[in-house]
Each structure stands twice: as structure tokens, then as C-alpha cells.
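Feature request disguised as a bug report, sorry. It would help if multi-protein outputs had a clear separator. Right now it looks like this:
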Amino acid sequence: MSVLLLSVQQRYQDRQLIADLSSGNLIDRYGRRLQMEVDRALSSAYILRGVARQAQVNQYSFSLVAQELYQPLTGIRSLQLAPNGVVTYAYPQESNQPAIGHNLMEDPETAPFVQEAILDDRLVIEGPKQLKQGGMGVIARLPIFIDQAFWGVSVVVFDFPDIVQGAELEALAEQGYDYTLWHIVDDGEPVELLSSGQDSVKTAAVTAPIAVGNHQWQLSIAPVHAGWVEATLLIEITVVALISILFAEVVRANYRLMGSRRSLKALVSQQTFSLSRSESRLLQAQEIAKLGSWEYCLGDTQRRLSKQAMSILSSKSSEEWLAPKRQQALDSLLAFRGPGQKRVEYEFLRDGQAVWVREIAEYEAKSERLFGTVQDITQEVQANRTIWRQANVDELTGLANRNLLVHQFEQLAGQTKAIQLGLLVVDVDNFKGLNSGLGSDAGDAVLKAVAERLQQAVSDLDILARFSGDEFVICVNNPSGANIDALVSRIRRSLEKPIMLEGVSRFVTVSGGISRYPDDSGSFSELHRLAKIALLTGKDISPGRFTHYLPQMLEDVQQLNTLESELKQAIRQYEIFMVYQPIVSASHYKMVAIESLARWQHSTMGSIPPDRFITIAEQSGTIIALGEYIAKQVGQDLSHFPNLRNTKVAINISRVQFIDEAFATTMKHVLEQSFASEQPVVFEITESALHNDAQHAQRTLGELLSQQVSYALDDFGTGYSSFISLKQFPVSNVKIDRSFVTDCPNRPDNQALLTAIVAMAHALGFTVTAEGVETVEEAEYLRGIDCDFLQGYYFSKPCSLAELVQRFTP
């Protein structure tokens, strides 16, 4: 008979477990726990991405953030940043030292995951897998883009067993349940068993999806014995009948009856103790989960709350307790009579502190009762808010970030086909110079101030976001010409007042580019690109402009990109060649030096003007290779004319080329390899190159200065140099820009300037060369004011070295 009682009791318990499981509370609770553990681990990848997007990431800033992430998070094994795919920063440093320098994009084991992350621009998961350092782990890789350019990857490695343990899945066994955790594919088909309890869950299971980056896991929970409850029902009935017959015989035996009573009493005592222990564990689990229960009979004035529920919902203040939003949620909960479940979430003040609560109710029509649970989800809500904020809000300015802006734009664009939107891209003029000159703290202060001013300028219908670096984007609702003009006017007015930086007032200007949806494009990324093209086109004319996108701009950019690619090819195929122009003495008009000038004869477009392809080379960084190529070419040309070995040859040096740290080393090598040791060389450098970084300029000029090398300042008068400031540099010659020379005999204002420049230059020990001399009158006037050297079309247009030698050599 005891076997019968145990069997019936077991079946009853299993059915009760199945009923409890079907309510959804259990799977919700453990699914939520597991999801939270996973989200907390993965959120660190997004936080590291934010660190990388700061103006300057270094070992100190990385370690500071990584340490704060590492300590509270469950199971984190490693936090890494990999600029350009190469692991450069890792925490903890000691245990992750072997990872430093690891190229994730070249390693065949990691490259597919990194490539997938970059192509899809999303978090990509690898694992759980056996880690090289031991144990089962999960590796998360998140691509980082800055200004739409790939920067690198953030990597998080965490212990898989610790995540499972943190979700307390093993505690299910104590409650009579078992679980399995599967990796599933898009159609819901399980492909890999990741973890399980003592038995494999097969039937009577409820499931919960767990989102893990680009992976999907599935948690299944079922009673331990649920698999055979219904399957053995017929067998149990038969057993019950047989045992009943046997029990009739047992009744006739008095001593056996007494033994059965003692056995039954012992069994009841044992079950009572087990029930008491289970109830104690349940109360403990509810306390840990901040979960309580309640019951409500129709017609009652209030609910009957469990101890934990009373603790969650209690408040000393009746005003807090009867807050309107809370009362509204409770009214809808207690009015529920339908099938299924009713779920509400609300916020209220508990003893002055904001608390979030989730309540779930089920209605039992037979007893006219509501049964429910109440749970304190404050930490969950705060964690979700933190994760949402990290993913959608710019930390520095508090504005929407790129992710949120794109999402809101797509929502607006999807509302109706008739909607008109504008995208205004704004950036701070000369921000890089300000940031490098005053420091990143000052740069951050400027960005905060500009963000506040822009917020004042936009309307309530517009969306303002910090997109990246010093770039802000405004999504404009109804971008009519009048609305855009009014917005631009408000932006300019908002920036009329200076910004205080370290006690000093500084004026800041911005430039902007505007594109329209759907006229210019239907996709956000393309609209952003077109607005950037408009911005840069206007900025090339002058900073502070707001420019509307026009199709011709895209054609110009595409042609520019084509020329940039072809310029690199032209250097490799020697399509760039040199011409030379004589520099003559003003006293006798005889050649004393020559200036080398680069020319590009394009195979299909013909001659490309130097100012155009030099600008392309500077913008693309090709100028470094082009400058080295030009210097080598000049040396090779001169090697064919030994009679010019004592004639100075001038080589123009780009500002971008000059500020390169390797400039001096490169030029030393070119001089040694391509020039005769007695060949005098003059490097012509612009004012902006010298004053961009005075210390670098002094060091670089000093390294190259020798009997063979001297320097000339090109285009003097067009920048901001003074003769006094030039004295700190080893410059020996000043070249006056052609704009002062043109028609100088007939322009008294230029005559006064030229006379003053020549006199002051001579007083300070500089020689003077006048560029752009095209008439005999100009040449004679310049000779009359004691200008030292002349150069221009009057003496010769640029030509080949052979032609120059033929014309100017006696």
C-alpha cells in the first residue's frame, strides 16, 4: 500500500510541478536570470567600443575602464581592444600577455568571425568552446567604426559555466525540475546541447529564448519525472487494483495492519518534514529573487499577500502607495477575468526610493479567484536602462548617438511614403587643430558647448545626435527651404557668443551639409554620405558654410576618387615627370638656380594641373610617396647634366610631407642615393608647414641642414609669418608670392609692400626671390628696389632640363 501511496503522491507532485511550470513564472524567472547574466557579460563589449571611440585611447584609459568592468561581472576571463584587428590592450594584463600582438584578421581560426562581425556590423559569438587557457568559454567580438571607417574590434571572453551558475540553473533540481540549454538555429531547430541538469529534458517542457549576439540559445525546463507520468498511468491503475486485492488479505491480519499503520505514520512524518523543508527553500528562493505571491477573491476589499510580497509592496506613505500610475496598474490587474495571464509593470516610490515592480495574475473561474506573483525588478530595469543608454546615448554630450539616430530615422521614414526628411551634417571647423593645440579636455568642452547650442537651435520635431568625433547630425522634419534656412540661422546665432576654455573666450564656427529624403536617397547611410559630400564641398570653398547637396558634387567626388587611385598608379608607372624653370640674378638676368616642378600627363584626361593632383595627393596621403618619387626623379635628371652640378636646384616640399616624422630620414637617403655630393639643393617650404609645429620644424630643418642643403620660404606674404618669427628657422631665402609682383609698376600699394619686404629681409640677412615676373617692366622695377633673384614667364616657362641647359648655358 505504501508503494501505491508513493506512486500516487509522486504523480500528483509531478502534475503539480507541470501546472506550476505551465504558469510561466518559473521559465520567466530563470530565463530572465540567464539572459541578464549573458547581457551583463556582453555589455562590456559595447562599453569597450565607447572607450575606443574617445579622442585618445591608451593603456591607462583602457585599464581604468576594464578594471571597473572586470570586478563586478560574472565569469569575465578577458577584455581586449584590437585596433586594426591586432590585440593591443588586454585585461587582466598578466594572464592575457600572450594575446598582445595577436592579429585576429590574419589568424585562420579567428578571421572568419571578425570578418562576419565587420560585414554585418554586429556582435558575433564564438562558442561555447574549449579555451586555450583552459575551461569552456564564450568569445564575443564587436566591430568598431569611427567616422564610418573600421577602427578595430572589442573582444570579451567569459566562462560559460560561470554564466550558467550565475543564473542558478542548478537550483532547479532542488525544486523537482531539470533543464537543458541548447544552441538553436533560425528555424528553432536545436543544433548543439550546451548544458543540462541530471537528466535530459524531453517532454512536458517549457522554453525561453536567450539572445546571445548573433546566436540564439533556448532554455528548456521540465519536472524530473514528467516523462513517465502519463506514460505509466495505465500500469499504475493495474497495480492499484492488484494491490487493493492484496490489501484486503493484509487487513485480515491484525499484526500486519498495525505494522502498516506504523509505516504509514512514518511516511506521513517523512513527507511532512520534506514539505516543510521545501517550503523553507521556496521562501528563501523567493527572498533571493525578490518574488512574492498573492491571492484575491472576488468581492474582497484587498488582496492576501505573502510575507515577501508585503515586503516588496510596503510603503510608509499612503501618497506613495496610492500613486496614480500604480493604482491604474492594480485596477487593471484585479479586473482581469480572461484566460492566460495578465502582466503589468509599474513604478512607485517606496520610502522615497523609486521601485519598479512586475505583477502577473491568473484567473481561476471555478473558484472566482485571482492568483498572482509580484517581483521587485528595479535592478533589472536599471540594468536594462544602463545597457540601453550605453547603446543609444552619447556619453560625453548626452545626445542620441549614431545607433539611436538611425533607428529613429528609419521609424519616421517608415510611417508614410509622403514624409519629407532632411539630414543636416554639422562639424566643428578646425576641431583637430583645437584639440591637438589645447588638449583633449578642451576639445571635450567644445563638443559639450556646441551640443548645448545646437540643442537650443533645433525644434521639438527634429532629432539631434552626436554621430562621431566632432560631427553632429540633425534629422529635420519637413525640410522646406524656409525651414532649413531658419534652422541654419538659429545655429549660427547660437554660436555667436564665444565659448569659455580655461578662462579664455574662443569663437567656434561650424560647417554643414544637407541632403533630403527621399529626393536624394532612400537609405540613411547614403543620405549621410551625400550630406558629408556637400559639407566637404562647401568647406573647400570656405569654412562656416552650409551647403545643399547637388548631384554634380557626387560626380566630382567620384572623379576625385578615380584620380586618387590613378595617381598611385601613375607614380608606379613613371607618368609623373619633371619640368624646370630658371631663377635668374636680378642684376644681370643670368641663371643662378632652377626650380623643379612636377607634371602629370594622364593617358585619357591629358594634362592634370599640378595644384589639382598635389591637393589629391595631400588629402589621400599619397604625397609622402609622391614627394620621395619627385626628389629621386630630380636627382636622376641632374645626373645627365654634369655642367649643372654647382647650380642650386629647388624642390618644393608639401606641408603634409614636411610634418611626417620620417621626412628628414627619407630625404637624407634620397640625397645620398640620387644626388652628387656637391649638388646644392634648396627645399622650398610654405609658411603653414613651419608654423604647424614649430618644434618639429626646427628639429627637422636642423637634421637636414648642411653645406649641400638650404631652405627657402615659398609664397611669402600669403600666410601669417613675420620676419622676426622666421629668425627661429634656418631659412636663407624668401620667395615673394606672385600676387604682389603682378603689375607692380602700376600699383602703388604693392610697390610699398615690395619695397618694405625687400628692405627688411636684407636687414635680417635673408635674400629675396620674386616669383611670377612676366614683363620687362616688372623685372626692371624689382631690380630697382634691390630684389636679389627673379623667376617667371618673362625669362622662361617651365621646360625640360635639356631645353633649359640649351637656352641658359653659354
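(second protein starts here, but nothing in the output says so)
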Amino acid sequence: MLRHPDGAQVFLVRAPAGFGKSTLLRQVSAELSASGFSVGWLTLDQSDNDVTRLLSGLQAVLRGIEEQDAGARATPPYFQQSAAQVLARIGQLQTPFAIFLDDVEHLAEPEPARLLRDLIAQLPANGRLYLGSRSLPNLHLGRLRVSGTLVEIGLPDLRFSQAEAEDYVVRKRGVALNPDDLARLYRMTEGWPAGLTLASTAIGRQADTKGLLTHLLGRDQTVTDYFAEEVFARQTEAIQNFLLRTSILRELEPDLCGDVAGTGDAAAILEALSTSDVLMGVLEGTRTAYRYHGLFSEFLRARLEQKFPAAEIAAMHLAAAEGYLRAARPVPAIDHLIEAQAFERAAQMIDAEVDHLLGQGRMRLLARWFTRLPAEVIDTLPELRIARIWATGLAKSPAAALEMLESSSLHASDAADVSAHVRAMTATFLAMTGRLDEAYDTGKAAVPFLPSPAPFADTLLLNTMSTVTALMGRRQEARRHNENAKRSLAPGADMFNLMYSEAGRGILDLQEGRLREALARLRIAVTEAHPKRRDLTGGNAYSAIPYAAALYETGEIDEAGQILQAYLPMALDLGLTDHLVLGYRTSVRIAEARDEKDIMWSTLVQMEHAGVVRSDARLVGAAQLERLRVLLVEGEVDEAVAEFRAAEASALWDHVAHMRYLGHESEDIEIARLRLQLFVPPVKEVPRALDVMRRGALRDRRMQRWLKLSILGARNLLALGESGMAEKRLSEAASFARAQGYARIFHEEGAWPGGTPLIVAEFGPVTAAAAKPDAAPVAGAGSQCRKTQDGPLTNKEVEVLHLLSKGLSNISIGRALDVSDSTVRTHLRNINRKLEAQSRTHAVAIGQSLGLI
């Protein structure tokens, strides 16, 4: 936008300190100079509010431009000229020129602003004006926007993307961080370039990187010095006081800020700050509410604690709580009551809201509150004692929740609602800790007591029984419990159990290979937890990890990877073994698909380590089997054999064989044994066991397992030269995969014997890197090849197809093209129709054969 303006002449680069405004303008200046522009630069300061001094500076800039202007006439020695004379000289320049004015925020007086407006009004067609500013200058920008002569570059344009931030920190700053810490650093800095630089410096000096990235970065000396000098010290005393007092708020709303800061003009102050050099932005979805940048907010809170006594800060929190209560917003009100240590009042408010919060699935919020409240306060309210156990088990540790339940007196209660909660808790937390037989017996004994006076507990018990029976292979019983759970839901009152029911049915669909139905249900389960959120990080690990695994199967590896990055740590905290197996293995395969070998091996090590630390034999065994598969793909046969022997020695596989764990549907010791027989030279004829296993999987509707066995069998037939039989086997597998959306499963065993079969190429490349369209085009490829069965692809559709071939998800394509997810889906539907493709991977294969990509 700055280099190719398309008719614009005025360019405003505006953002708070540290976003690289001057750096960007210097780069543009150098590029314009190299392309033949005459360029002049002036950095402003407070003294330039004297219009005479400003004119002197402009004259010096103009002198330099005229010396570069080959067509400029010779002029006598310069003396101080009037504004009209200077502007007239600018109008006489013949060749393209650009004037750069940096730090325009210093021009606070009317006269300098008027001079710049006159300069803009009289700028000739061959001239450009570039402005760098921390605040919004008084230049009548509305007129320029309407006329189309203004280009504005703001904070969203200057903020680093996550990929840019990671590249800057690791490659340019030389800071070695793992992917989780890099993602955490990006969230903390929000892509602020100076913040990344300061954080890199701070991390280099600190031994406790985890602590720094958890909550201490905003208080590090390097960061605080920058904020103190570059932002805070530039404000008036009144504004400093306003900033400090309102730093306790996550949302800066005018009325609320007025309550906390004790001022009647909070709206005007917020509006002024939003166009100044203070790091703040408009709160998403609002027009008058703001928020401070996370690091700046942390800096302000540290200053607040230094300046004000604890009692006065508590009074600010109480004022905030009252403001939120007037606005009928109890959740933030409770937050501030707890900060003010008004624990009894906070507990009473939680007690009034607890049924609603449980039904909405706000388990992490409740767990956070219960961690802060004194135990003696919680124990005075029976419903809070129950809610604390639910929140602990569903958000932190089901094992810890079982211990809390056993040590409580709730078992002795005669109250029907308390007994219902106890029965449901016991079954649920036994199931979550892997004690399925005990969970089944407990739940079976509890079902006859339904319905009870505790509808949340009743529905959760039915959902738990659905999950337990599904894992035990009792499909009909699982479906019956799932349907009963849905029928017991009160409309709109229990979003958590709605999510649980949809996730449970989605897992049943995955067990039977109905990938498209599973995706739809699991997406509902993930998004319904917090329907107002645009991202997919507001749900819970129970539904999110199977959803990520299903997305991976369809080839949506970017979105799957993002979800796993958010939810694997939660599954680890909860100890959900099946979800950990599924999540870690999917993460390994995403790294493999991206050709990121270091991350792939590192994730495998983390997977096994997590199993060892938790004494979780199934997670350790799954890690060993996944390493075996990777070693075979890499050609390390001897090591793969050794890995198999280590895994085979475990006693867990008999148990796994009798269960329907989602994490082992297509990966268990029998399939690992089969892999070795098929891959270790000399290659033998397909073992009879494979056909037996394949027929058994089909009989039991274990269709993902059937698909895996079909692919392994076809590979074996190809290795033996039985191409006809292999093609038949692959055709059966491909027909099912097309119908259900499977893609990645065809590429998880490495290179195909004799080259990739054409029918397999339909399901996309082995790795995302292999999809890059860098091969020479086929003969005759070009615009004429875009003609399809239903008219030519548009340029935008070709662009979408190109990004699709690189393995990008719909979300990533939308970001790359700056369009919505629904627009991307529309393009994909048009592409599939025109190319007569049955899937996105099929469309890529056709596009490559036509030379479109």
C-alpha cells in the first residue's frame, strides 16, 4: 500500500511506540530513492510547534529534494521564506518526489497543523507525503479518505503475525523457545515488535523462562523501563492517575472507568487515549469500550501496587464490582469482590449463580474462584461444596475430585439432590480416570434413581454412561443413554451437557467411520460451549481433541494443529488417557505432514515421557507403536523391530483388544505386528490374519480400522506385483474415503511401492511441502487450461486452489486472501463444481493435472 498507492498521495503510518513506524518509513524511503524519486526526511519534535522552526525544517528538506531534482532550476542561497513561498517551490518540482515527516504527534498547536493541511492541499500530482505518528494528527483526514488520496497504515498492519514473530524471536534474536512458549510469548506481546524485542532481552537474562512467560514479563525491568520512559512519563499527572486506577479493569467502559477513577469525563479521556501513544485498543464487538495491551496493563498494575496502599486498591475493586452489578454482570463483579477479599459476599453471589454457571460449562472459572476462596467460606454453603468438586474434576483433576468427594461428608447426606450429585460424580470421575468397569457398575446402579431433583447431575450421568458403554463396545446401549441424555436437557439451560451429548454422539460416529457426521457434531460440541467466541479455544478437551483428530483426517492440518496446541495441556491436566493418545499421535502426524522432523520426534518424546511420569502404560505403549510406524517410514527397520518388542512386552494389549478406545481404533499391537510382517524384507504374501481382521472390522462397523487394513493390504499387494488386486482393494477404500472425507490415512505409511497410485494421489500429497506448486508446468498449461466442465475458474478460484494445494485450511486461506471463512467455502464449492471434484484433495489432483497449479 505504501509502495504502490493506486492514486493516493498522503500516507499516514500511525501506531503507539515500538511498532516499527520509523523503520517502515525508512525502508519505503530507500526503495523510492532507488526507483528514481527525490526524497526528503524530517524528524519532528516539540520545538516544531513553532511554525517558523517547522518552516525552516521544511526548507532544508526541500533544498535536498531540489538538489536531487535534475529539472530544478538553480536557486540563490537560501533565506527564511514564508509558508506560501515554500509551498510554491514544492509545487514547481518536476520529477517524482516524496517528503517523509516522522513523529508528527509532537505537533499539538493549530499553526503547524494548518501548515501541513496546506501542504497536503497544494501537493502536486508528482508528489507524495508520508507521515509517521503515535497519535491521530489534526489534518482533516475525513476529507482525504473520501477523496481517495489517503492511505492509512495502523496497528493491525504493523503487528507481527505469529509466524513473523516466531521467525523474529528465533532467527533474528537468537532465542531458543519451544513451540508452546513461542505461542505463549506471542499471546502476551500480541505481535508488538518492541514487546518481542524486550521479551527476547528479558528471556536472555532470566533462568525461569516459564515463570517469565506465565505472568512476570510485564514486570521485568527491561519492559518496565521502556513503558515508563516511552509511554507513562509522557502523560500528564491526571492521565497517569487514570491509567493506574483503571488498570484493574479488563474492559475499559466509560461508566466503569468513571466509578473506579472517580471522574465524570471518563468517556472523553478514553477517546483521547485511544488516538494517543498509549497501548490500548477498542474491545472487539464494541464501539466505546477499550482494553489496555496485556504487557502495558501488567506494568500499570505493578505501578499501582507501588503507589497506592492495599486498602485503597481494594476500594477500587469494590467500586468496580458495584459498577458491574449495576450493569447486571455478576461474573466480573465476583472477580473484583475476590480481589477486594470480600470473600463472604463473593461466595453468596457464586451460590446464587452456580447452577447457571455449571450448566454453561464454566468449570475453569468456578475452579479459579474456588482456588481463591477460603475453604471455611465455601463449607458454609452446601451447593458450593458440590460445585467445587464438579469444577475440580471437570477442569483440573478427576482423581483429585474423587479424593475430595471421599473425604467430604456428602455421602452421608439424606438430601435427594445431594445423593444424585454424589452418584453422578462418582461414575463420571471413575470413567475419566480410566476405571471403566467401576464407572459402569456405579452408573448402572444410579440410573434407576432418575430423574432426581438435580437435573445437571442426571444428564451428566447419562452422558457418562453413553461414553463408558461406547468404549466398552456396547453401541446400542451407548446410543440409548445418549438419546436419553438429550431428552433430559432443558432448552437453553444446560449448554455443558448439550456439548457433552453432541461430543458423545460424535465419538460414536468416529468409531463407526462416519467422519463427516462426527465433524459436524464435534464442531457443535466445541463451539456451543462459548458460542460468542469466534475461535475454537472456548470449549473443552473432551470434545476438542477428537474434533482436531477428525480435522486432521480430512487434511485440515493447520486448524487441527491450532486446536491441539490449546487443548493437549488441558487433557494432560485432566489425565484423559484416550484423548492424550489421540492428541499426541495426531500432533506427531501433523508435524510429519508438514515435514517438520524435529517437532515430530520431539512430540514423540513428550508423548512417552508424559506416559512414564503418569505411570500410564497405555500412553507409553501408544508412543512406542507410533515410533515404530515412523521408524518404518524412515527405513529404520531394525529399530522398528526393537520398538515392537518393547511394546509387545506390555500386558495392556489384551485389555485394549476388548475395548473400543478411540485412540486405538486403527493403531494397536495387532496392526503394528501386521506392519512389520508387511514392511520388513523379504516382503511376504498378505497374511491371512489381515483378511480376518478386515472382515471383523467390517462386521463390527469399525470402518476406520477397516480402511487402515485395506490400505495396508493394498500396499502389500503392490509390493508383490499384484497391481490388479491392489487396485480393487484401493478402489473399495477410496470409495468409502471419498464419501466420508478421509484423506490423510492414505499417506501415513510412507512411500508407496512402485510409486504413488493415481487413485491415492486424489487424496492429496504425502506432505504439505510436497504440495508446493514448484514443478514445471505441463505442456500447454496456462490460461487456456483453466477451462472446465462448467466454465473457467476465476483468478480468485485459481488462487484458492493454489493455497489449497499447499495444505492450508479454510481459515488459513481466508487469512491469506483477507476474506471470510464463508467466502472461502463458496470458492471451494465453485471449484469442486467446475472441476467435477468430489473432495478438496480431488480438486487439487485435477488442478495439478490441468496445470492450474
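Even a blank line would do. Unrelated, but nice: DSSP finds 44 helices and seven strands in the chain.
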